[in-house]
Amino acid sequence: MNKLSLKQKAYNEIKSKILHCEYMPNSFLNEDLLTEELGVSRTPIRDALSRLEQENLIKIVPKKGFFVTPLSLGEINMAIEARILIEPYVIRTYCGHLSSEVLESMYKSLQTARDCISTNDQHLMFALDDEFHRIILNQCNNHYILQAYNQVHNQNSRLRIISGRHDETRLLKTISEHAKVLDALAIRDLEGAAKAMEEHLLDSKNSSFQAFMKNASLLSVQG
Q: How far apart are CA 195 and CA 221, in angstroms?
């Protein structure tokens, strides 16, 4: 395996573990342990950590080392604010022609998400949650809007997982809120779907605030 692929492997695996909260906010990342865990040398690890610092997922603390970037209440608020500006707009503007096949697929995913509750498969539940929003965003053909959304996606992935882990009722509420959006889309009520999405995002923000206030170690001292 060449150096470039080793660097990409290290980057992909560390980023995935951060986004899926296997490496929690504020946690220390030990280079030696990372090299052993990922089976690569220090050079790919350091390259990956440098790239992730540029994406605001890693924080380098002088004389201490690498830490997963904590989340502040201000960051949570800004991330949800950006999503409220983007997602309802995309529904109103681009989701008038969702095909019956796509709608049927989304309904099936909702049922799978309900099954995840009974089987306690949170990993799949979070993936389906992300997929629901991605399908809606993918109806948009404005790459500037999509780029703006992608900038908040990393933080949103962590918020979703931490909120769900610390509030079991949040997962059930998410499914119910998604269903309201989907039911409105199915009858081409774009305004109703957009409003349902905004309500869903506001509820997500409140849940995120509660989860993080209960776990101060995940927060930065700012914001």
A: 33
Burial 169-183, CB ≥16 within 10 A → b, else e: ebbeebbebbbbbbe
Percent of the residues in the chain that have a pLDDT greater than 90, as a whole number: 54
Helices (H), 65-99: 73-94
Residue 92 and residue 190 in contact, taking contact as beta carbons nearer than 8 Å: yes
Cα dihedral 38, 39, 42, 48 sign: negative
SS3 143: helix
> Model confidence over 198-210: pLDDT tens digits?
999 999 888 878 7
Angle, in degrees to the nearest 10, between helices 122-137 and 168-186:
30
Is the pTM value of this prediction over 0.90?
no
CB–CB of 85/91 below 8 Å?
no
- Strand segments, DSSP code E, in 113-153 are none
